[in-house]
## 1
Amino acid sequence: MTQSHGPLGRAVPRADARRLVAGAGCYVDDISTPGALHVAFVRSTYAHAAILSIETAAAARMPGVIRVVCATDLERICKPMQVAMPALDMPTTSAQFPLAFDEVCWQGAPVAAIAAHSRAQAEDAAEHVLVEYDELPAVVDAEQAMKPDSPQAVCSRHSNIALDRTFGTNNGAASFAAAATVVEQRIVFDRQTGVSLESRGIIASFSPLSGELTVHMSHQSPFQMREVFSDLLGLPNHKVRVLCPDVGGAFGLKLHAYPEELAVAAIAVLLGRTIRFQADRLESFLSDTHAREAVGVARLALDSAGRFLAIDVEALSGLGAYQAYPRGSVGEGLHMAQMVGAPYQFNHFRARLRAVHQNKSPTGAYRGVGQPLACTLTETLVDRAARTIGMDPAELRRRNYLSAERGSHTTPAGLEMSAVSLHACLETLLAMMQYEDLRREQQRLREQQIYRGIGMASFIELTAVGAAVYGANQIAVPAQEGCSVRLEPSGTVLCHSSATDQGQGVRTGIAQIVAQTLGIEPTDVTVRAGDTASSPVGGGAWASRGIAIGGQAALLAAEDLRGKILELGARVLETPAERIDIAGGTLRSTTTARTLSFAELANLAYFRQHQLPAGGCPELSATRHYVSQGFPYLTANGMQGCLVEVDIETGMIEVLRLWVVHDCGRVVNPLLVDEQIRGGVAQGIGGVLYEHCEYSEGGQLSNGTLADYLVPMAGELPDIEVAHVASVATETSLGAKGVGEAGTIGAGAALWNAVNDALAALGAAMEQQPFSPDRVLRALATAERARKSAAVAAATNIGPVNV
Amino acid sequence: MSQASKSSVDVAFVVNGSAISEQVAPRITLVDFLRQRLGLTGSHVGCEHGVCGACHVRVDGQVLRGCLLLAVQADGAEVQTIEGLSSSGEIVDLQEAFVRRNALQCGFCTPGMLMIAADLLARREVPSREAIREALSGNYCRCTGYQSIVDAIEEVARARHGLAA
Amino acid sequence: MELVGQVDLNATPEVIWAALFDPSVLQGCFPGCKSVERKSESEYSAVLQVKVGPLNAGFNGVITLTDPEYLSAVTLAGTLNGAGAGFARGTARITLQRRDLVTELSYSADLRLGGKLAAVGDRLFGTAVKRNIADFFASFAAFVDADRKDTASCLASL
Amino acid sequence: MKPSAFEYLRPNSLIEAAAMLEEAGDGAQILAGGQSLVPTLSLRLSSPTLLIDINRVADSAPLEHCDGVVRCGARIRHVELERSTMVRQHAPLLALAMPHVAHPAIRNRGTPCGSIALADPAAEIPACALALNADIVLQNSGGRRTVPAEKYFIGLYETARLSTEVVVELRFPAARSSDRFGFAELSRRRGDFAIVGIAAAAQLEDNCIRSLRLVIFGCEPIPRVSAAAHAMVQGREIGELPIEEIADAVAAELDPMENAQGDAAAKRRQAYAMAKRVMAQLNEREV
């Protein structure tokens, strides 16, 4: 990088925030399409049933209705979605059609679609489509789904088990046998979902004349969706254009292809017109991918000095009826199993993951993808070990962290680890928390029956995932990011990036990188993204890749453009390129002190080539791509702290304070990085304190509104104190790692440990989220009964002993 | 019955200072009417059951959920949306603070947040952070974790009363 | 959702058994029931308007009386579909036990809600539906308890 | 999630509204604040054929204190009670309860009369009406009748109001200077439905309790005055109340609904905690 000061590292506000605070954003539902048809879906009311008949005549006659569409109408137009991951030797999943043919496998699965002049008319008609179901046995609980006698979630499958995989090489049996202490920890995560405030939406227009399909949709990966529509609708992919306007939050759930969006695109092709669909909130709860449903059991062997010897993990991940297309749903389970113990040094590791199908909606990516589960299982296990051997949890961590000097290596679990800064993060966190004072105050309050808990959690984070994951499984997902830059006649720079922005501020970060490289202000750089017709081919947004990979591509493109500017400048200023300075958008010859502004240079290049000295037509644009090679991902790391107070009379938990110390390598924009962390922490806290998709045993989701599915609001969170430890990533010249998922990965674990630290004084512990008041009270009641029966047992022993 | 019941009703009201008069079906909510009939898409629809606050509009000076008021009920009222508050300059300091402190990320909740913030600052001298969080307790944001929004509102409240940030 | 209960009826099993198989009695006793028509010996089609606070939805469906043991037990089952609201499916095993002066009717009912009815929170409807079942058996008891009054006037008084 | 179609009427008086209600029969519903009604229309849980909008009627009583009563007419919004110094002085229990009613934007439009008409088990205003034994004035096409709160709540969403009647006014007895009030509510998040709440009004005579109406709401189908609490405090010095025993008695008396919010044991323990907090408020709360 040329200058040390300059826009890189500055808290630059986001350019597109100006539009959004004026209500001038453009989300999919804001786009006006006169004459378009609106779609409403008829959804399965059963978790598992055969469809005997669908009666659509009455609905078809209702006012405003143009077409009632069933599976058979789309059969010739649209292939089913079917996830295949050969590199994991996982059998191809069952075919999932946009509308169910003869079997529905979860409550809410789309069965028919009504296309009408208004959404209200479509919903009126949907109520008059009569579907006759024959209820089939359903399996809802993941542990039940594993059993051989369990009903099949999808009739055509012979087993619900989609994946049964083991990680780690040497078995730790010897270490467990020789260990001074062995501790075991079990955690259960109910299902959650991303609840982006803007629901999923799509507008699909198909022109029979040109054979072109144009799709506006609220999505994270436009190029992936272009491949999906082209493949499944049988259209050449140069005839498919996907545009992602402003997106109202995504968090992973807008990374997948959904049956509803596929049906809308297919109906556009069927009717040759514009069709639009905006999911309502109940539909979002029923059809957005869910996540986190898992059971984890981990065992840890320690020697007498408290050093970790071996870790053994059993992990179960609930997938739902199908897998999310095209990336599959096993990422959560894979990360959960393989990343247990990631921050720590130990010798033996074994983890077995089983991922099972069940009669619920498919699960998919949600911020952190399994890493919050691995972190929670690990950190609750470490706290339990500290309590068992009577060592302070901070000290036990200090003894067992991977050391910074270790540098990049492969862990016993098979993770490719680069240098970590866990000890630095720990010391910074303890200082921020004033840990010793907190412990003293906790003890003082405990004497007054006020139960506070202090929790901490360390985490490793796989960011900026490279090509190995999807390419190897022949899944058409671009793993690189691209950036094209062009010097404009106004002297500013126009930039097209493949990295998409759902609010993370990636476009601003890229503007800073380009501005720094070209010696101009970020306000002089315009960054556009999210349109497969103009953006370079690239992945979009997932696994915290925006700045780490998209930013690196921008850096390379800007450096190329700088070279071309200097080359033309040298010809015009008749000064060798190396003797020309660039600052403030102006070239200055250090020998002749002549100057040339970017605007003058551009006007010469574009409009007055006749005045240029010989040397060929000037080039003032550049396009570069970047993909991480030689390492599958960039490992970032960090720690979180949490202070809670538990009201043991009502079971209510108040989160008093939250701290985060994070190392995401070079910080391009501290404002955007800290806000990404705070937003992530809020989702992590919600994920343990409040959120779960409640299912009856019959597989009916029973909390499908924002009044019943609880998310943290402004009144439920304290301020979040954020600090950084910056070790620059050596893998890229930019040196930035990902940060988007850091907050979510560690917050739930820190809260879990804080609550169990408070309850430990009463012998209680939480094993399953969410920590609703009645579950806290049940844990306290169980502990009370155990204390009483122990007391009774102790009392009866005294009698005969002194005979 | 003195009035014949109607399936389509004439409504006339003022939106962001300009008078409109339309025929509308009673079932159309005010937020859908503003968005689809008048193209004022700054008010957003997040839940359609009155919980998330993204659809806040000001009706006769009161901030209401635009999804819980029928368009026909706005007859004769003075309606203001985020577009109106923005062009009138009434909330320019709040908008500046939101941008400067990154008190928004995806921006979907932001119009609703700005509406309730303007209402809070109009009613109270300098609200405490606790009072700000209380006022925002009915506005759902999934991106920011709320702190930057509280910071921005607190900063503007203090600035409007000549206090240092 | 299970619900178990029992009620003492001042009537003979014969009277009770006849009432159970009489569609007009079922219609009179189930809250919000608009019509019950016999379709076969043991099958009826029913139309209900269920009104509980915010919920006010129309249901239609099939009620069956199956595996009868004359004068001692029968299973009352129903699948009711609401236009947009979803469905309610339930079965209740009803048993009659002759005591000296009265007949004890006991029921164990299992009920499941589906679709939107289930999805928008059992905070509202879980309790409401249990109450509807309890009301049915209470009004059924009131009906058969009437001291030999003719059936029509009883129904009017419900 | 769009409502199904319905027709719309905007009567000029409450009398006219009642007449319309009676004439239209079963498919008609009154639209006041709409903060509970409109979501159920959008969710298509109910599809009335006619909405009768009473937001422009001329004969709705003002929010005022006269002849020892605090009157609250059909068009009065929650926010008006929340910000009224008259209410804080003459009906302090309502002033204590208002901040717990949903969220600011809902309170700007929702109405106390509407809350009484719906009688949601978790609603604050019905519990306060019962604690103060307010009078509920019902308008039908023929005229008005008044039902005391004690006789108004019957079952889950079932009240003394006939389907042809409109709740047009609430009349809360004004507080005497010696009265004491307490309010506490447990909900997961601010503004959420109450899991369990208690609204209490105590009448004292030279520092002894003459009567205590301690109302539990949220976990039973209807708000209910605790007989146990009244029995245990009657005639006792306000300073020497056995707060924990009273709270135990209140919890033991409870027959809570079991739902997603918790089982009976949890709700009894939570009711115990809320009762203790309210009794403590009665102790130190000087009106």
## 2
Amino acid sequence: MILLLITIVLGVVMLIAALIAVYNKDMKTAIIAAGLTSLFASVLYVLLAAPDVALTEASIGSGLTTLIFFYVYNKIRRNNAQE
Amino acid sequence: MVAPIYIIATLLGVAFALGLFGKKMNSMAGLLSVVALGFASFISLEWLAGFWLYDRAAEYIYTAGFKPPFSINLLMGKDEALFTSLINIAGFFGTVYLWDKLKKIGSNGYVTLMGMILGLNVIIMTRDLFNLFVFLEISSIATAGLIIFSQNLKTIAAGFKYMLATGIISGILLLGIIFMYYFTGTLNIDDFLAVHSLAVKGFGVAVFFVLISIVLELKPFPANGWGLDVYESADSGIAAMISAGTATASFFVMYKLLPLGTPQFHMVLAGIGLATFIGSNLMGLKQTNPNRLLGYSSIGQVGLLVTILGLSEFLGERTTFIAYSILISHFLAKAGLFWISGIVKRSEIKEWAVLRNNRLLLILFGVFIFTLIGFPPFPSFFGKWDLVLNMASNNQYFWIVGILIGSLLEGVYLFRWLGYALKLDNAEMPAFEVKWNKVLPIAVFGAATFVVGYFVSSIHPYAKIINYIPLAVALAFVLIDFLPVYVKNTLAILAMAYYYYYLYPTLSSFGAVFGAIFMVGGIVTLIAGYAFKGQRRGFYPFALMMFAGLIGLIEAKTTLGFFYAWEVMTVGSYFLIIRGKKSMPHALSYMLFSMGGAYLMLAGFAIASVGQFNLDMSTLSHVLVHPTWVFILLAVGFLTKTASLGLHIWLPGAHAEAETDVSPMVSAILLKAGVFGLVTLFLAMGDQLIGGDVSVIYLLGWLGAITAVMGNLMAAFQEDAKRLLAYSSVGVLGYILFGLSLMSHLGWLSAVSISVTHFMFKSLLFLAIGGVVWRVKTKEMYRMGGLIKRMPFSFFSVLIGIIVLAGLPPLSGFSGKWIFYNAVMAKEWYLQGALIFFSGMIAFLYTFRLIHSVFLGQLKDEHREVKEAPFWILVPQYMIIGVLLYFSAIPNSLLKPIGKIISPYFPTGGLEWTGQHAVSTYGYWNGLVIFYIVIAIFVTVLVWLIINNRKAQKVKQFNIVFAAERPFKPETSHYAYNFYAHYRKAIGILVEPKITGWWEGVAEWAHAMGDKFRKIYNGNGQSYLIHIMAFIVIIYLISFGGF
Amino acid sequence: MLRNSLILLVLLGFAAAVFPLVHSYEAKDTLTGVAEHYANYGKEEVGAANLVSAVVVTYRGFDTLGEVTILFLASAVIGLFLKVSETHTKDSRSVFFKSTEILVTASRLLVPMIMLLGAYIFINGHLTPGGGFQGGAVIASAFALLLLSRPQKQFSHKLISVIESISGITFVFIGLLGILLAGGFLDNHIFAMGKFGTLLSAGAIPIIYILIGLKVGSELTGIVRNLKESQKVG
Amino acid sequence: MQLFSIEYISLVVGFLILLIGIWGILTRKNILKMVIGFSLFDTGTHIIIVALGYVRNKTAPILDQANLQTNTAQKIVDPVPQALVLTAIVIGLGVTALMLVYAMKLHNEKKTLNIEKYNDLKW
């Protein structure tokens, strides 16, 4: 039962994060929100008895992907600033 | 046999190893890549050979040492061997082609390219659905990389759009795959095929998502904007690989997964394919960028292939043959065309005239275009034939119509493009750079079209019995094209003569008559070729190809053979016609009408074959289904070649603008192919009734009569001498059609004898007038005049010609007409007869004008020094005159044998001959007597004229004394200009170009439609994604009939 | 707005289209199909305690090879983009926050530990959660951290590609050994199976996972490095 | 079908995130936002896959305890979807990284991230 509750909460939080990622005007927030969605998903994977996936999602899905997003975003921002 | 896993291991291993290569070792890296791709090609080709020659069994490749479904397995079967061979060969030659570019880019470039080829190999061979997904991703990532080999705004934007689209598509594919796993507990394709379908709706939906993703990979209309952008922007070498490689592999995946779909889905698939084929070719009409144009064509062709897959239920075991022959044609041609585009480097198809600077590339360009459209001897010809035949046997006429319309649209832009390359001015264009490593792949693929074409025809049960020797001889002339004209001309004449000698004993009945027209006529007109100097490149292969086709018509034992010969003839004549200086638009309309006519014939033959045990020509005499339709389709098909009213608009330009000796070939000889077709058709099928009471032949009779009147009328109002003759051919062919439609002994006697004499007098006139034009450098009659003094021999030719043409006694034209009126009386078609009679009067008008404006009157100043026509152009004229006079003096030498040929079919109502004295029901006629009488009268009048001519007063040509104003154009006051102004006032309304206008309207409408449709490709990548999603939803709704 | 409503319509249509998938979902009680086989025989057949690893590396090892190739290609394509910037432009600024003394010190401390963690993850891939991909990603993140803290620091491009290439080639080679020595391409029985549940078990799986770890790590590092070096690309 | 079970909720959440992702892809004009949409699309798909492999009250497919080693099929969740997700995640990373680099290069060309501005190729 407690698992079910956690799942629901996680689900709601993920959906909110996803909506923020799509709708927030600030790109940094959006990127972080997308990363958070991924991170919460990895928690969900633990609940779903998938530790391997959880580890992968945490390190690759939320970690590296977000990192690359930021790299690129900063490049673009700096590029803009130079103009 | 090398195990197929080594294809993968080699490509992958080399790709990984390339990372070790530094920048200075780019050549080494390139060499290694080429070797690896060559090895991969070798493995797959070796398997292919094993399957074909030694009938090997298909082999599974198990990975990880477990049997499927527990581990991933690959399959190397006949199909896989073929497709991997295609992919690897494309990769190999593609790399050779891109050598310089790759060398500049370095190891990452090689890696990307190998990655793509590897991915495509695996998606062809794999039997595991998720594995398919992984390697699809590999190939799409690699493709995204290939696109940016040249980096600029366009390629990057196109690459990004491509990534967006494939991202969405593969996401949906993954969704489908995982649910398929969920419902079945397996990922193995063979297991899925065994399961086929489950009661759960979810499974059906999952399968739908998998299949729709593969469909989307094939770029269906309208969800394909991203694909077009890629084709347009990517380097041509890359576009070639995408078009030849990715499309081929994706097609195979669809083929592999096809059994997963329900029969309803297959129909949906066929619909998608057809919409893509027609839509994409329609939008291609307005396109001027060569690579984007090729993109439209590529997408269209893949659409056609998808249609074939969707229709596989109807096509049965022929599906493979049809799909593969069309696919391989597309593979070779599209790669070749993209490669050529990469050498030419012109972004407007109009600038492709520059291609003429390189003869080899120009030839290859033509080869690829004809391969793409499906002309013989290329593989797609046989594929299309089988496709239409099989669809007809399943009563699927809708699909036939759609496929043929799509093909025709494709023909429009491809032939326009070819025309530009052949004819537009290229004087100020800088030459392009040609490197051997770029030409080699193109040449290999060009040669392969012939090899594969031969192979395909050799495994086709009916194609293999066609006689390919005439065509081979014609093609052989390409090889000796460097020789001077007189050598080639002699060889051509000898070849024709030998073949006629060889064929003569086998000819009988109408074959003998038309064989004589085609071959003896061919030899006679070829003689004029000696008048040309230099090499006259590109003339003999096509002239002989046309004659090869004509011979093939007579030799044809099967409908396929007939259609094959018909198409060969069309190709040859197209190239002859386009040789004329201003022929480009006319050659295009000739080609399009020919294609349209050919497709009608194809449909007709297809319906005629339904329920038959073979394709013999004789099956036409017992057509089982829709005989009226078969008759109409074939008749209209033939009528496009005889240029009946409504279908005639291509003729005047094509014949008038052609070269001196080409005009007689196409006008006097080629048109008879249509007549031969009609003769064959009428004999085999007899009359047919529309709706049980209207006779088709009766309608054709009217058409013939009206064509005769209109053709002659239009001839009378021409200023251009050759155009006049061309229109006159329209009129005469109208007579012939009318004569055949009479369906009586006399009607046919006149029609066939006019066919023979028309060959003679029209060759004569075209050669004579052509000789005049050769000297005076103009075709406008009012610019000539008085040439009788300078060119008496030509004058005499024209005189004889028009006497025969107008059907005046004493020459043989008269005998034809005389029989004609007898036939009309017997049939009691008085009204039509009156029209024919009327048209005869008009013939007087234009024949008079021809001789009057050109040869009589005052000589123009600029023509004072003009010489007689070249000797070699006069030679055939006088040979013809000799025969004409012989036939005229001894008419039964012509009419009696023809009558004998006709008798078995129309035994009653023939002529009774006593010597040269012919008796019909309505009177009698003795050719010899008439001949002498008329000559006597003629001589008398001539003597009288010579005596009295001294009193004649000379009037200046540009006499404007009676005009109140200074003429705006000098020709307006020339008496020979608008010669029949008064007639034009009275009946000019009849000759207004309404039909031309109508056809132009059709063309404009199609172009406008295409232009409107292509606006959906607004360039916004996001819109393309919306198209994709909307496409999925709509196809879902169609497939499941709701949510 | 019209455009958005249309998109909404399409999306609702798509949602309706996928609805039968959700609707047909039924909770399972037991494994079926291939999964059942893996569960029951995976231990004997492959010998890896972590069944996911058994599936990833052996049963579906060919997919994994493809997966490695994808990263390899992605890295190559990114390299294609950046080939113009052959001459390395020095950029002292950090990527998204100022490189501080703390960060530098922390990274000195952390990087080796993170790398060790990564190595641990892929070496134990056949026993515990994680494996080559996760381990590789962890290693790459260590390098990313290094890049964050010390932007001037140069990695040897050469070294990265050599590791990448050698591990890739070895992977393919081990796969081929499977044909020669065992049942087929990528069969893990080319090495002794060892005792179930110990480090040296499951045949070639640990080796392959190490190679994958190295390869993925170097590929991801390559991607990050390439991104960093693409400061000014025309 | 039990609506309130963690696998079913996860499945639904997965689909919702997937739809949000597609919505983002189709409506956001900013290229980076579109890529974020893609990564949400991926995440949603991954959640769906894992949820499909879940079997209620069963443990992870790691046979580190002796009692798991017999009659295993009754005791663990499905390892196959997990393996597939691993692959999918890595592929997703590759694709996302590549898209981002594309976005960066596009920005280099026109100094804007608005997808509508990159319509030089059309018709």
